[in-house]
């Protein structure tokens, strides 16, 4: 005869299943190229058979997908959810970006990092005749952009080494050339609370950025300005960015 399972025991078992599934998803999130079942098992410290059952259940919901070579990657359902989060973030951030645009008179953008790249997912363009118009969706080197460095500053130096690697391909003649120099720059970003670069990604363009760490994820907010205007406006932009960071973080929650 079947026995009723006590509510506390059932609840505990359900929480354990969710926790293990979350561990698998987090492991895959750190390896977008995919992982084998054995690699996942080692990462989350679970038996391979347990991981196999979890992966099968997640695959049925589209949260992961299995590749023909035995690898497992995050699935389309999660990617759709991530897209929704970006949409929500843009909707929440837009009033703050407009305010930043009005205060500085310059183009502002919000970005998200992925590996060695950072991408602007939304921008508000300056109305000045000489202005910067970034391409939304364009991948840029995380190490040469102020927005990328602001987000790197939220990570440890060891994590940065893994993400960036030893070779920094130059985007312009001004691009930081070595990992050691990049780590020194990131250390300054941590101390100052903001990041700045001058012509390291696009010649003639300077950017100042901050990172926001929220319950919706980590994003950058940057101001893009023609380099000749930077010196006169740097203090105003820096202050406005730091105020924007505080307001946005308070609005969304950390």
From TrEMBL:
Which part of the chain is the IclR-ED domain? 70-254
A single MF term (Gene Ontology): DNA binding
Q: Which residues form the HTH iclR-type domain?
A: 15-76
Supply the alphabetized keyword list: DNA-binding, Transcription, Transcription regulation
Q: Which GO terms describe its biological process?
A: negative regulation of DNA-templated transcription
Q: Which residues form a coiled coil?
A: none
Q: Which Gene3D superfamilies does this chain map to?
A: 3.30.450.40, Winged helix-like DNA-binding domain superfamily/Winged helix DNA-binding domain
Q: What SUPFAM superfamilies is this protein classified in?
A: GAF domain-like, Winged helix' DNA-binding domain
UniProt xrefs under PANTHER family: HELIX-TURN-HELIX TRANSCRIPTIONAL REGULATOR, ICLR FAMILY, HTH-TYPE TRANSCRIPTIONAL REGULATOR RV1719
Name this polypeptide is given: IclR family transcriptional regulator
Species per Swiss-Prot/TrEMBL record: Rahnella contaminans
């Amino acid at each position: 005869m079947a026995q009723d399972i006590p509510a506390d025991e059932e609840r505990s078992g359900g929480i354990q299943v969710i926790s293990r599934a979350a561990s698998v998803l987090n492991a895959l999130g750190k390896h977008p190229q995919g992982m084998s079942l054995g690699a996942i098992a080692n990462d989350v410290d679970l038996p391979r058979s347990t991981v196999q059952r979890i992966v099968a259940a997640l695959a049925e919901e589209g949260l992961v997908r299995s590749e023909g070579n035995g690898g497992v990657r995050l699935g389309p359902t999660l990617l759709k959810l991530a897209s929704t989060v970006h949409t929500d973030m843009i909707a929440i951030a837009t009033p703050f970006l407009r305010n930043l645009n009005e205060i500085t008179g310059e183009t502002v953008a919000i970005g998200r990092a992925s590996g060695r790249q950072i991408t602007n997912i939304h921008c508000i363009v300056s109305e000045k005749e000489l202005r910067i118009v970034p391409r939304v969706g364009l991948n840029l080197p995380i190490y040469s952009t102020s927005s990328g460095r602001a987000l790197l500053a939220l990570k440890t130096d060891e994590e940065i080494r893994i993400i960036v690697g030893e070779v920094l391909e130059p985007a312009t003649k001004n691009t930081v050339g070595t990992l050691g120099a990049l780590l020194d720059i990131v250390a300054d970003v941590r101390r100052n609370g903001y990041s700045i670069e001058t012509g390291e990604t696009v010649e003639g363009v300077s950017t100042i950025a901050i990172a926001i760490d929220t319950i919706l994820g980590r994003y950058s907010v940057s101001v893009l300005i023609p380099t000749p205007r930077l010196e006169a406006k740097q203090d105003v932009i820096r202050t406005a960015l730091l105020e924007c960071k505080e307001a946005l973080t308070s609005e969304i929650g950390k």
